[in-house]
Amino acid sequence: MKTRRHFLKAALAAGAAPLMVPASFLRGETAPSNRVNLANVGVGGQGTGLFKTMLQPEWIRIVAVADCFKKRREDRAAQANQKYAGTVCTPFQDFRQMLERKDIDGIVCATPDHWHHGVAILAMQAGKDVYIEKPLSLSIDDNKHVRETVYRYGRVFQYGTQQRSSSHIRIGCELVRSGVLGKISRVDVVAPSGAVGGGSLEALPVPEGLDYDLWLGPTRNRPYTKDRCTSQGAWFSSECAIGFLGGYGAHPLDVMCWALHDQPESVPVEIEATGKRKTDCLFDTIGKWEAKGRFANGVEFTFKSGPDCTTFVGENGSISISRHALKANPLNLLRSPIPQSTKPCRANTTGFHHTADFAQCIKTREMPCSNIEGAYHSDNISHLTNIACLTGRKITWDVANQTIVGDAEALKMMRRKIQRQPFIA
């Protein structure tokens, strides 16, 4: 294999003029013109995990981080600057100020759920490509807004359903697409349950180093409590989220939609569900649930809380896809050749995390593994299930018009808006 040293020797041997070789070339660094400059919005637990993956490829530079917590943003900026051996990464308290920078190519958002929609919209309007953690937003109407904005501004969009970067999940979805199961009769989706109750409502002083007003953002002004600004407070308070129906349900539902070609028809046209929740506490989202329904083609659909898994049942057997395994009954289904006519699922070819697939697509302008269509349709299923649980009624989804029909209360829930000034996107 030829190295940089071989290149220099060959150039000199050929009588080339003296070369002004950048020091970065000699050190094997990526040329600045080939780098992708990214910024993190939200560097708590999940955000820090994504931040660490972004430090790995030499062709990615984290040039800014934003977080309402002072210590978080300053720690992550210092970590990046230590990695880059210089002052490269700047901490910001308010991500909106960060978006004014022209040198940022894309942002990676891992804020609490209620900020996902606002960060996505404002970032795209500022000319940035976006990686957004799940769930996509707090309502179907806001999902539509994000999807429309992606296309309006021609942005690269990657959803935080990182399982699409796993080869066994991609292969499982391609097997389903190839028709090895024969006619599919049922799809069973299972996702881990969330909290059923808990969380203090006792008002406390806001701790130093937290911009609590910005943390609340577009959601309603509520007193600070010891649990509100924790991970569980962000996941399981209905002011900020729809619980693990969306926060974790996004993963196995996304697998289902991927195998079904990320099309509008991958959303059931009927869903009825029951769920468990408590309303006298902070954690008041649906914690455990059981749903059933059907797709437009008559295929049955189930969605319940439990171990993570997506199972496709057909006349030739079943294929089960989970984060850690790909299984089939009978086993030889996994050895079935995939016809060339089968539309392949996009593979993450970077050798790095899901975030690197996003960064690569910023350069190539391709559609990443977890594109906006998969995000939009899978998250809509979470919302439809949540609405079915809350109303106690069967919800009917009009695929052609992308709306709930025949239920005024459910339609109002679909159009939910969180719009506290001045945080409206």
Low-confidence stretches: 1-28
Query: What count of structural domains?
Result: 2
CATH homologous superfamily (4th level) name of the largest domain: Dihydrodipicolinate Reductase, domain 2
Number of helices: 15
Order of helices and strands: HHEHEHEHEHEHEHEHHHHEEEEEEHHEEH
Q: What characteristics describe this protein?
A:
alpha/beta, nine-stranded mixed sheet, 33% helix, 425 residues, 15 strands, single chain
Structure description:
With 425 residues, this protein is an alpha/beta fold. It has two domains: 22-162, Rossmann fold (3-Layer(aba) Sandwich), CATH 3.40.50.720; 167-342 and 372-414, 2-Layer Sandwich (Dihydrodipicolinate Reductase, domain 2), CATH 3.30.360. Helix content is 33%, strand content 18%. The strands form two sheets. It has a nine-stranded mixed beta sheet. It has a six-stranded parallel beta sheet with strand order 3-2-1-4-5-6, with helices on both faces. A hairpin with a 5-residue loop joins strand 9 and strand 10 (300-305). Helix 6 packs parallel to helix 7 (140-153), helix 8 (167-178) crosses helix 12 (250-259) and helix 14 (372-391) crosses helix 15. The chain starts with a helix and ends in an 11-residue tail after the last helix.
